[in-house]
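User: Can you predict the 3D structure for this chain?
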Amino acid sequence: MCHMQGSVDGRIKQNSWGFKDYHKYFEETAEKIPADAWLVGQVTMQEFSSKQPYVLESGKEDFPKKDFVADQPAKTFAAVIDPAGKCFWDTNRVSTEHVIEVLTENIPIGYLEHLRSKNVSYVFGGKEELNWERVLNKLHDLFNIQILRIDGGGHVNGSFLKANLIDEFSLVLAPVADGAIGSPTVFEVEEGYGARKATQFKIKSVE
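Assistant: Here is the predicted structure, written as structure tokens:
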């Protein structure tokens, strides 16, 4: 399930909107979704990850590039699409959720050692590019995640949309028109349409 807050012209929140407490409107609605995990992109997750300057070690050449499920009592999870390994961690939690890094196999060994040192779980979604269906299957099989709430940004949302892997879409509609040409939108898929057609949803409810 994808959950976002957007303007009437489909843009993602910018400082120019002038909203106070805008997180509240997003989070109060998100809490009503009975998800086992929420997922965001690397840029969004860097708001929650470490602000310390970590330096990676060279790493052991024989270090296995296999999925790692850390020992942790958490029943809810915070997953991040981070194929280049740009998020660093002081702990393995965001609030009460256990962190899961979604990586590609061309990640430096030193970064994997950093994640293990902080007891952060990680899964590989592909060699050089992520296979989104494989990512969802691993989150289900390894962590028993039944309902995943995708919270963006636009490129992450767009990738799941293009792969036809979004079952439901929840939108908190902000009463504002952004109007900026080229500003980020709720779904960033690709330039033009090509052979792709727009994704259609059926309205389930409006509040």
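Residues 92 and 120 are 5 Å apart (CA to CA). The chain has a mean pLDDT of 93.
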